[in-house]
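Q: A reviewer asked whether we had any structural model of the full assembly, not just the individual parts. We don't, so I'm hoping you can provide one. Inputs are below.
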Amino acid sequence: EVQLVESGGGLVKPGSSLKLSCVASGFTFSSYGMHWIRQAPKKGLEWIALIYYDSSNKYYADSVKGRFTISRDNSKNTLYLEMNSLRSEDTAMYYCAKSWVNWGQGVMVTVSS
Amino acid sequence: DVVMTQTPPSLSVAIGQSVSISCKSSQSLVHSDGKTYLNWLLQNPGQSPKRLIYQVSNLGSGVPDRFSGTGSEKDFTLKISRVEAEDLGVYHCVQATHVPYTFGAGTKLELK
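A: Here is a predicted structure for the entire assembly that you could use as a starting point for your response.
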């Protein structure tokens, strides 16, 4: 069974940094591209980043480009999202996803002073 | 960026009724490989999204056949025949042809 488990969220102040993790199991992690997608409270879904299976390509939404970095460690079956210069508008539930089929339960990030 | 215009924003339905949701894109979603990467997702209350339909009309694994997707180029529709209680939640369309990938604003399906 495919499982994706996010962690690393929390309450942080504007301008600070946070690193999210997503541990994958139940499939060959190193064979799949992975996404980060977020959902602000009571809002729709927003795709924010994609990394290819071998880290050869990475893509970002304009809203996070230059501030967020997606990465992965295939030896640890883990996907990461490093978030810098956080803003109040980054407050959201953050999901990792394999294709559009398998999603984690999400991790909440709240940016507030 | 591709803008996905999803309508209606909400639907009130009775169990057993059929409904349709529209998603229109600001540009063609036909990829250079010839495929059209338009997906439909359902997010039940308090849960993560799950994929229903991929590449316009292909039913995801385990998805009941009362769900169907149609469309081409820039105009897409999700139809639910004979709505059941487990179908209630927010439906999202998402295009995965052009980076950045973009979602529709969502359609909330509620019980009448």
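A: Points you may want to mention in the reply: Chain A is about 0% helix and 50% strand. Residues 87 and 100 of chain A are 27 Å apart (CA to CA).
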